[in-house]
Design a protein that fits this description.
Blueprint (H helix, E strand, L loop, with lengths): L5 E3 L2 E4 L9 E13 L4 E7 L4 E5 L2 E5 L3 H15 L5 E5 L5 H6 L7 E6 L2 H10 L1 H4 L7 E5 L2 H6 L5 E6 L14 H10 E10 L7 H14 L2 E8 L7 E8 L13 H4 L7 H6 L5 H8 L2
Helix pairs in contact: 6-7
Bound molecules: spermine (SPM).
The site of spermine (SPM) has 20 residues, from strand 6, helix 1 and helix 2.
Length: 288
């Protein structure tokens, strides 16, 4: 499967068989970067109304106008569900946005970061310093490697693993399959939690059902959270979570006022609310 995204009359349209018959279009002012790396086509655009936009193989990864929602939720939901996260692994997300959020937790001692495409990191360091500042924290150890291969050899090592993958087309495909989730589980410490980019139950039912099936089979505690990101297809995206111990649906540490003031989307209330599903999704998940 590949995208057929195109620019026509100054508008970028994100066209992909993964969301047939629907496409998001953003008005573009300037192409800032456009090159093929060893793994994928990397494009950085200046949009007219949504800041800079990172596009990989024709698929929107983020815009500066709403990236905070995705990065905050994918990082803080699992991190605040854990009583004392000290060791964290982040797979994917070469823009550095997830790292920026993970770094806010003072209790964390080390953060391993694994990204397959070094060019994405370098492009984001040049054009998105407000996200790539995530790489500046001395607790972050960068590994340029395939996330699947990297996690396969880790045992009993991490309190939290966050997978900020692109969609299951292209280099990210293996990150949506059972063997990868088995490796994530083996890499966790007792009481560890995984959180992975969980797509949209409106647009990718089969993919979401498959992720839930895999995590339900592997983890004693499993949950699915979703939230709003206007520049992702359908305007929403989910997180698939698995835990070896802690409950997931409420923060179990205080979000201090000082911490809260740094954020724009995550709150303890949003944490809880993000697990409340529409009726059709509840029915869909019950049948798994
Ligand atoms: N740190 C931001 C990287 C973004 N990674 C996830 C991108 C997902 C893009 N496609 C969304 C499709 C939603 N159904």
């Amino acid at each position: 499967m590949k995208s057929y995204s195109k620019i026509l009359d100054g508008w970028f349209s994100e066209i992909c068989p993964m969301w047939p018959g629907i496409a998001l279009s953003l008005e573009i002012e300037k192409v800032l970067y456009s090159q093929k790396s060893k793994f994928q086509q990397i494009d950085m655009f200046q949009t007219k109304n949504h800041g800079k936009m990172l596009v990989l193989d024709g698929i929107i990864q983020l815009t500066q106008s709403d990236e905070f929602a995705y990065q905050e939720m994918l990082a803080h939901v699992p991190l605040f569900a854990h009583p004392n996260p000290e060791t964290v692994l982040v797979i994917g997300g070469g823009d550095g946005g997830i790292l920026r959020e993970v770094n806010r937790h003072d209790c964390i001692k080390t953060i391993d970061f694994c990204e397959v495409d070094e060019d994405v990191i370098n492009v984001c360091k040049e054009f998105l310093p407000d996200l790539a500042c995530g790489f500046d924290d001395p607790r972050v150890n960068v590994h340029i490697a395939d996330g699947n291969a990297f996690v396969k050899v880790q045992k009993n090592r991490y309190d939290i693993i966050i997978v900020d993958s692109s969609d299951p087309i292209g280099p990210g495909e293996a990150l949506f399959e059972q063997p990868f989730y088995q490796s994530l589980k083996t890499a966790l410490k007792p009481n560890g939690i995984i959180a992975t980019q969980g797509e949209s139950f409106f647009l990718h039912k089969e993919c979401v059902i498959n992720l839930i099936k895999i995590t339900k089979n592997l983890f004693p505690v499993q949950a699915y959270s979703y939230f709003l990101v206007p520049t992702y297809p359908g305007g929403n995206i989910g997180i698939c979570l698995g835990s070896l111990g802690p409950q997931l649906k409420k923060p179990c540490r205080d979000v201090t006022e000082k911490f809260q003031k740094q954020l724009k989307y995550y709150t303890p209330q949003i944490h809880e609310a993000s697990f409340v599903m529409p009726y059709f999704a509840t029915k869909m998940f019950e049948s798994i």
